[in-house]
Amino acid sequence: MVTKNIASDQKVKAMSLVEVRTFIEHLAKENPDAKSELNYTSPYTLLVAVVLSAQATDASVNKATEKLFKVASTPSEIVALGEEGVAQYINSIGLWRAKSRNVVALSTQLLEQHDGNVPGERQALEALPGVGRKTANVVLNIAFNQSTMAVDTHIFRLGNRTGLALGKDVLAVEKALVRRIPKDLLRDSHHWLILHGRYICKARKPECWRCPATIVCHYPNKNLG
Ligand code: SF4
Fold first, then answer.
1. Fold of domain 43-144
2. Closest C-alpha among 139, 161, 149 to residue 23
3. In this structure, are residues 135 and 51 in contact, taking their beta carbons and an 8 Å threshold?
C-alpha cells in the first residue's frame, strides 16, 4: 500500500521555491518548538537513542533508555555493562540483539578513537558500528547544530506526496530538501517534517483537514474530511 502511494505521489509536480518556503513556514507556525521525541541528556545518549530507534517507535526507545541510562549513560559504562547487560534493558525493542552489539561496539570505538566523545563529523560518525547516514544526520543536526536533513519513511513520503522534494530514494529526497528549503529554516525543518509526517500527513490517510499547509500542498487526493 505504501509503495503504491509513493509511486503515484511521484507524479506530483514539484513545488516552487516560494511554495516550499510557505509550506515550511506554515509548519513552523503551527509547531514553533518542535524537537526530537527521543529522550537524551548528552550527545552520547542521543546517539545511542537514535541507533536504538531504527525500526522502533520513539516511545518504545524512551521506555527502554529510561532504565538503561540510569545504569549506564557513558561509553565506558556501556562497555562495562556489556552486550548481555545492555540487552536486558532493550530486549523489548525490535532488532535488540544487533542493537546491543552495535551500542557496545560503537562505545568501544568512541573510547579508542575519540576519547569517549561523539565526533561532530559525518565521516567519523558513519564509521561507528550501527550508524548510517540517517543516524549521522540526526546527531549532527541536534547535537552539533548542523543543517542536515535525516530522511526517514515519513519525510520520504511527505517530500514526494506534496511536491516539496521529489526523489526515487531517500538520498535523492534528502539532497532535494537541503537544496530547496531556505537556509534559515533548514535545521529545524527536520523536526517539523518528521512530526508533520508522523501525526498529520500519515501514510494511509493524510489528515489534510487539519493540515496548516494545505494551501500550497500539491497532493491531488487531499483528504479534507
Ligand atoms: S494537505 Fe494533506 S497531503 Fe498535503 S501536506 Fe497536508 S496533510 Fe499532507
1. Endonuclease III; domain 1 (1.10.340)
2. 161
3. yes
Ligand 1: list residues with CB < 6 Å: 161-162, 200-201, 206-208, 211, 213-214, 217, 219, 222
What is the band of 11 on the pLDDT scale with cuts at 50, 70, 90? Answer: confident
Q: Catalytic annotation on 152?
A: yes
Structure confidence by residue, pLDDT tens digits, 25-36 = 999 999 999 899
Rounded to 5°, angle at Cα 47 from 171 and 99: 85
CATH 3.30.360.10 fits 2-35+148-216, yes or no: no
Q: What is the residue extent of each domain of the chain?
A: 2-35+148-216, 43-144
Residues 48, 192: Cα–Cα separation, whole Å: 22
